[in-house]
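Hi F.,

I've been meaning to write this up properly since the lab meeting, where we talked about keeping a consistent format for the predictions we share between groups. The idea is simple: the sequence comes first, exactly as it goes in, then the structure tokens exactly as they come out, then a line or two of notes. No screenshots and no reformatting. I'm using this chain as the first example so we have something concrete to point to.
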Amino acid sequence: MRTNRKLKADFIVLGGGLGGCMAALAAAKSGLTVIMTEETDWIGGQLTAQAVPPDEHRWIEQFGCTRSYAEFRRRVRDYYKSNYPLVDTAMNNEFLNPGNGWVSRLCHEPKVALQVLQDMLAAYTNSGRIQILYQHRIIEAVMEGDRCVCVKVINDDDDLVTLQGKYFADATECGDLLPLAGVEHVMGAEARADTDEPHAADNADPLDMQSITHVFALDYEEGGDHTIDRPAQYDFWRQYVPQNYENLPLLGWLVPEISKNGTIKEYGLFRGKRGEWWESLFNYRRMIDKSLFTNELYKSDISLINWPQNDYHLGSIYGVSSHDRRKHLRGARQLSLCLLYWLQTEAPRLDGGKGYPGLRLRKDALGTDDGFAKAPYIRESRRIESLYRITEHDVSKEIRGDQGIRTYEDSVGVGSYYLDLHMTTVSFRSLYVPTYPYEIPLGALLPVRVKNILPACKNIGTTQISNGCYRLHPTEWNIGESVGYLVAYALKNQLDPHDVREDSVHLQAYQDLLEQRGVQLHWPEDIQLP
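Output, unedited:
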């Protein structure tokens, strides 16, 4: 029987990704009661349920993130050192990278990230200050003028829960609260005439958004045969040649180098004898390097497969009908299955043969029955119309030139990453542009009208282009954490968050609070920029 409950807290956080978790944790540390929802049965979003190791910047081991994010990274390494049989060199390595993947200085298992996040929240979930509603999604928001009164969420059994709060954070992967609450927002591509960005689209199109990827986990058994059944869409994907892809098939080792004016990069599954230019994709997002563990704990390395070859760009999963959403979710999964089948049966080998049938789905790695992540990796969300909109002009190294890093009087954090735009769903644009390290302006976290709904992940006031660098793990973490402290500060001082920005005394006090809690607001003046 369908139930209908009502729950109340100071702060309602919709979405249990990194931004949502940190918004909840910061608020709970400040004495607020919090209810957080999560659509899957894992908190952690892109780091866990979506199975994407952290994309970080070159200074991450020293500075450029919040103290709690640095603590998370330390806890991950300590978890391996406390619970896994490591070789001496790994045990004594201050900068242990369990997977030695070349995408990140800390490639590790999503299950470990989940455990660490749960430990960081434990005092507040165990005491009841944070309540997590797993496998619940938002379906309705009730507004009175420019304030949200309550939201309604349901689970897979159609049990309804009405959540009442003083403040609400949208930390969903797609910005699902925004349209339901009537929060002014944008989707997809803005027009160059609107943003004046050199790399913006010629025409605005809300459905022209970045591709998604359904990640899966693989190991490799030399001599084994773990070939899957031929996927239903294999004939289509085997011959598919994307637009703006240099006439190359998507399933292949040759990939256009976006960062080098369309030159072609050749990849392979494993390292071989063809020179340093031959990059191993298996090592790219490898989460377990078996050589770091004793007692033959792992028979094989384990890798998370999130490559250009399984970026799905044939349509969006939000802003469309439920039929089209299901179609594209299935399409993303089919593409990943087709990539695996191609790798097992047809991928050219360095020895002249074809296929690696020893590739095996690790059905135990991601908390699922099939070795696929619980949810697809979503790079781009709906984005609020904000008091300040971050554009390419704020971060692009080419545009800013000798001006260097853009600073803001209302900064609430820092980050750094390239303007990295994966192939979009309509215009098939891709982008990889050098940037300066950036700051996170409070104005980009404040909607132009609505007073008590705040973004807490990839849905802040960026453009599609600037989203390309503000969407990564440490930045989302920082955004959520700063939002949690903002709500706590506003409630304590009986203000709206907008008032905090408008009053220099309160803004300074709020920023002082952030710094006391370990949120870095500006980059060091003596930072050595590349």
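Notes:
Residues 322-345 form the longest helix (24 residues).
The first strand starts at residue 4 and ends at 14.

If this format works for you, I'll send the rest the same way.

G.
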